[in-house]
Amino acid sequence: MKILFISLSTYDIVGGIQAYNKKFIKALGCNQIENKIISLHDKSHDRTDVVGCDSNIFKFIFYVLKYCRHSDINVWAHINFSSVFILLRKLMKGKHVLITHGVEVWYDDISVLKKKSLQLYDKILTVSNFTKNKLISVQSIDESKIDILANSIDISNVQGSQSPFNPQKFNLLTILRIDASDKLKSIINVLDAMVLLDDEEISFTVIGRGNQLDFIKDRIQETGLENRVNMLGYVRDLNPYLEHCDLFTLISDKEGFGIVYLEAMEYRKPCLSAKYCGSSDVVVDNFNGYSIAVDDITTLAEKLKELKGDSAKREVLGNNGYQLLFDKFTFESFVETQKLHLERIS
Question: Residue 265: which CATH number?
């Protein structure tokens, strides 16, 4: 079996999709599947298996057509390739597989070309049951054409770091890109819940950078929480924060999966996530955390108060999360599932 992996970017940009692409390619190696990687936006690489096209669409098309002659399966790593896929598919050898991640296929208002392309792929791999159900109910894709290949992490069990937190506080942690998007609510709503609780023992640490840092800092000042919220920007080593926080929270209903929950679960941390999104595969309500409607500040405040006052509950939820991670979301599981799916396609 030979795979041509076609991505927007994999190596030169940091993000959830890029991390998934790297994991997929690494798993191909573990499965001893020969592969070639073509990336539209990555720059040229020294690696012989990677062709970076530096955002040159003509170079990209040339290399796709060149290397597809040797492939059995062409894996398109994003639906944004829909127009190129429709243009080239009849000129290409092999079957065509699309990877979907979440919000890009959840709604009916996607372009006509994207809708058409979804019907033309031989197989669609997606990261969560939620997105699979959206492909079926919203995009009218036959269920038999969809397989789930969920995100994963390598369990490292790195522990023993020094705590970066005040041990006298109940320490909340979130990690996200702080850009203009609905995900900002996952910070703002925690701030509002903290104001509602008026509990000086609750501290909130936000890790991430983006173009809305000043907006969030202004909101913190407006709420009078300057002494209880820590905006850290980029942090190179997340492990001490994940190991020593009391609760991880990312309540965003735009999550297609949310690999950062897995990283918190590795350290046996209970998680707060949003209802009605892809994270429902990862954060199971009242099992390893709580799922909360995005704008339900009252319930959010209640859950913060409950978990702050019940360390035994936090321990149970955290242990459940670790077991869920170990059972379903390890890299070893990813490798095995990838092999099964690709063998069925070929």
Answer: 3.40.50.2000
Nearest to 253 by CA among 110, 134, 120, 99: 134
What is the model's pLDDT at position 264?
Answer: 97
Q: What percent of the chain has pLDDT over 90?
A: 91
Q: How far apart are CA 100 and CA 105, in angstroms?
A: 7
pLDDT digits (tens, 9 = 90+) for 203-219: 999 999 999 999 999 99
Full domain range(s) for residue 201 = 170-328
State how far the Cα of 200 lies from the Cα of 220, in Å rounded to an integer: 15
What is the full DSSP assignment across 242-296? HHH-SEEEE--TT-SS-HHHHHHHHTT--EEEESSSGGGGTS-BTTTEEEE-TT-
Output the average pLDDT for the chain.
95
How many domains does the chain fold into? Answer: 2
134 and 191 in a single domain? The answer is no
Element of type H or E holding 344: helix 331-345
Contact 120/97 with Cβ under 8 angstroms? no
The model's pLDDT over 301-329, given as tens digits with 9 standing for 90+, comes to 999 999 999 999 999 999 999 999 999 99
What is the DSSP code string of 202-227? EEEEEE---TTHHHHHHHHHHHT-TT
Burial of residue 268 (number of CB atoms within 10 Å: 0-12, 13-18, 19+) = buried
- Portion of the chain with pLDDT greater than 70, in percent: 100
Q: Is 133 helix (H, G, I), strand (E, B) or coil?
A: helix
Cβ atoms 96, 84 nearer than 8 A: no
How many Å apart are CA 74 and CA 85, to the nearest integer? 10
Q: At residue 45, does pLDDT exceed 80?
A: no
Residue 157 lies in a domain: no
Separation between Cα atoms, residue 187 and residue 197, nearest integer Å? 16
- Predicted model pTM: 0.91
pLDDT of residue 330 exceeding 90, the answer is yes
